[in-house]
Amino acid sequence: RNVFNIVGEGITINEGTGNIIESCTFNGSTMNSISRRMINLILNTRALIDNCVFYGFTGSSNYGQGITVRAETPPYTHIINNCIFQNVLRAFFFDDDGGTDVLLDANNCCYFSNTQKFANNTTYTFNDNNPIELDPLFDDASNGDFHIGALSPCRNGGDYDDVFRQIFDQEENPITDTNGDPIDAKVVGAFLYTFDPGPAIV
């Protein structure tokens, strides 16, 4: 549950299973020299990425990816309830590290105003289930505020059927209980929706 205001690389995981990236925001990467990514999964990495926000790539050419999956042997990456939007390049890149198939399952992710959803340099299987292709209507994304607005399609657009653990948002509010069942709304992104009553009227 971290904030990454990135120039360069966000998170790289080189091999291993049981990797969980939860309720993080990745904001404003500028990539124009060597290939960099917000999340870079290489070799035998198996990862679960849930309730994150990826926003504002301004890289050029082939530099700058949201999530890069690079395979030497087939990994398995499962992303759920993430929002990937307003990136000049792409959400996903499937790359070749001398291996074969890359496998990525995406459930209930929000994509909006990306130049491409994905590109590939290897064989891949991409299961994109129940995508939300609408403006996420965050409060003030351009200034790093990714709280959900009252009319956001992310407010109750998530899917927690495959969640079996407690998840917290970036402000430590519980999204699910210890069994993985949503406590309130099925949120997409790193923050629960909270009602703002505005100033008191006296």
Adjacency order of strands in the biggest sheet: 1-4-7-10-13
Main sheet properties: 5 strands, parallel
Poorly predicted tracts of residues = 30-35
Helix proportion: under 10%
Counting helices, strands and paired strands, the structural category is: mainly beta
Ends apart, CA distance between termini: 38 Å
Average pLDDT figure: 77
Number of strands: 17
Instruction: Give the percentage of residues in beta strands.
Output: 35-45%
The outline comes out as: globular
Order of helices and strands: EEEEEEEEEEEEEEEEE
Rounded to the nearest angstrom, the radius of gyration is 17 Å
SS field, number of helical segments: 0
Short account of what is shown:
With 202 residues, the chain is mostly beta strands. 0% of the residues lie in helices and 38% in strands.
SSE map:
Elements: E1 3-5, E2 11-14, E3 19-22, E4 25-27, E5 37-42, E6 46-50, E7 53-55, E8 65-71, E9 76-80, E10 83-85, E11 90-96, E12 102-107, E13 110-112, E14 116-120, E15 124-129, E16 138-140, E17 145-148
Parallel strand pairs: 1-4, 2-5, 3-6, 4-7, 5-8, 6-9, 7-10, 8-11, 9-12, 10-13, 11-14, 12-15
Antiparallel strand pairs: 16-17
Structure notes:
The protein is an all-beta fold. It is built from no helices and 17 strands. The chain has strands at 3-5, 11-14, 19-22, 25-27, 37-42, 46-50, 53-55, 65-71, 76-80, 83-85, 90-96, 102-107, 110-112, 116-120, 124-129, 138-140, 145-148. The strands form 4 sheets. The protein has a 5-stranded parallel sheet, with no helix packed on it. A 5-stranded parallel sheet has the order 2-5-8-11-14, with no helix packed on it. It is globular. Mean pLDDT is 77; it is low at 30-35.
